[in-house]
Amino acid sequence: MESITLLGTILGTMPEINKWKRKFFTHLICLFMQIKGRINFTQMGRYGKYNEATYRTNFSHSFDFQGFNRELILSNGSGHYVVAFDPSHIKKSGKHTFGRGKFWSGCDQSMKMGLELGGFAVCDVDNHTAFHLEGFQTPSPSDLKAKEQSLLDYYGDLWVEQADNLTKFSAYGVVDAYFSKYGFVEKVVTKTKMHLISRLRDDADLRYLHEGLPTGKQGRPKQYDGKVNIKKPDLSRFKIAYEDKEIRILSAIVYCVALKRKVKLALTQYLDKDGKVKTTKLYFSTDLDLGGWYIVKYYQNRFQIEFLYRDANQFTGLEQCQARDEQKLHFHFNTALTTVSVMKAAHYLSLPKEEREAFSMASLKVKYHNELLLQKFFEAYAIDPKQHFNQPKYQQLINFGTINH
Predict the structure, then answer these.
(1) Is residue 72 domain-shared with residue 168, that is, in the same domain?
(2) Rounded CA gap, 4 and 52, in Å?
(3) Cβ–Cβ contacts within 10 Å for residue 248, how many?
């Protein structure tokens, strides 16, 4: 299918990957799509062409996921990107599993026992989708405590460590409101070449900048000129960056007390049918020259990483790894997420925009499973499959049960 051709093209640009790794990885990505039900070593041994021990052994080996995904993105994306980061809770039992501890679960809105995966994704602004880049498992709270490191410090250090790879795609990193804290923002902005885009609390303490001439009096010159009233912003200080029937974006450079720095604020008012303000959200960028409309647009694209994790959870077994070892967990998590990106590139982005329907991992899962069954039938009855690939009935069987069929 299209994915095998795409995988061959991408892996062909990576000479450091040997022949066996190329063969195994190509087989594995397709297998993650073909398996119905849980995706773990036992199931791989049942559905795949190798035994269970082979899969366990190869998951303990390293693979350049970031290099593979970088080639995939650059060859299939629009070129207009922002980098998103999001920690995701992974359900996992087993007292001796690496990194197990209590982490925040967004689905349950509480701290839950399990693992956490901090994933970097490249959001394609023009195609309105996200590609997985690489995920890194968060150390357990006890490990962080032993290093005298907070969770936010760890996230900041991870950004700094990966900054050179991230800036190959974009100078802008997008994170949710949890990260709009001084320690994280200051570390990323001062130690890397990246700017951050995020959202402030609704009650954030913001100050207008003093724009008047120096008075000539003794003492420190006046820097600020009053507090920003979020509900009634001073329109003489804000510029309208965008406005329609549903949204109004007001932009200005202000001083954020919590972040101890000037930021470009995109004060966004969401309007009701009568044009009255329903809610107000405060988006910001550390790049003071970035337009307010772009700040909001880039932040909205951050949500594509949520869909990436959702599809990996539902269809490619993100939470179903049987291993407890750090390397095997890393391999499984990144394979599950990379599979979603490969499917997007092969079956969605390869089509012209006007021909694209909604991207459906559910339909692709059914198609790949049907193809696996047909291959087994051909093998069992000694039928040459090449004689049937181009027949309409073959395609009907492949598409049997898909949503759009």
Answers:
(1) yes
(2) 23
(3) 18
**pLDDT given for residue 216 in this prediction:** 64
Please give the angle made by the CA atoms of 128, 9 and 330, to the nearest 5 degrees.
70
Residues 123 and 118: their CA atoms lie apart, in Å, by 16
Domain that holds residue 137: 64-175+303-353
Same domain? For 309 and 222 the reply is no
The whole-angstrom separation of Cα 91 and Cα 101 is: 10
Which tens digits make up the pLDDT trace of 154-187? Answer: 999 999 999 999 999 999 999 999 999 999 999 9
DSSP letter for 222, please.
Answer: P
Instruction: Find the Cα–Cα–Cα–Cα dihedral 361, 364, 366, 368, rounded to 10°.
Output: -130
The rounded distance, in Å, linking the Cα atoms of 81 and 60 is: 32
At 332, the amino acid letter reads H
Same domain (yes/no): 94, 168:
yes
User: What are phi and psi for residue 285, nearest 5 degrees?
Assistant: -135, 145
pLDDT one-digit tens code per residue, 289-335: 999 999 999 999 999 999 999 999 999 999 999 999 999 999 999 99
**How many whole angstroms separate alpha carbon 402 and alpha carbon 279?**
40
**DSSP per residue, 227-250:** E--SSS--TTT-EEEEE-SSEEEE
Amino acid at site 130: A
Q: Report d(CA 225, CA 290) in Å as an integer.
A: 23
Q: What's the pLDDT band for 34 if we cut at 50, 70, 90?
A: very high
- State yes or no: pLDDT of 404 exceeds 70: no
DSSP-derived secondary structure letter, 48 = S
- Report the distance separating Cα 4 and Cα 302, nearest Å: 29
CA–CA distance, 188 with 173 (Å, rounded to integer): 9
In a domain, 68, yes or no: yes
Q: Which of 315, 282, 329, 386 is nearest to 117 (CA)?
A: 329
Whether residue 348 sits in one domain with residue 282: no
The answer to whether the pTM exceeds 0.85 is: yes
Per-residue pLDDT at 29:
96
Indicate if 257 and 323 belong to the same structural domain: no
**Hey, CA dihedral for 268, 269, 271, 275, is it positive or negative?**
negative
d(CA 312, CA 117) in angstroms, rounded, equals 13
For the chain, how far is it from start to end, CA to CA, in angstroms?
Answer: 18
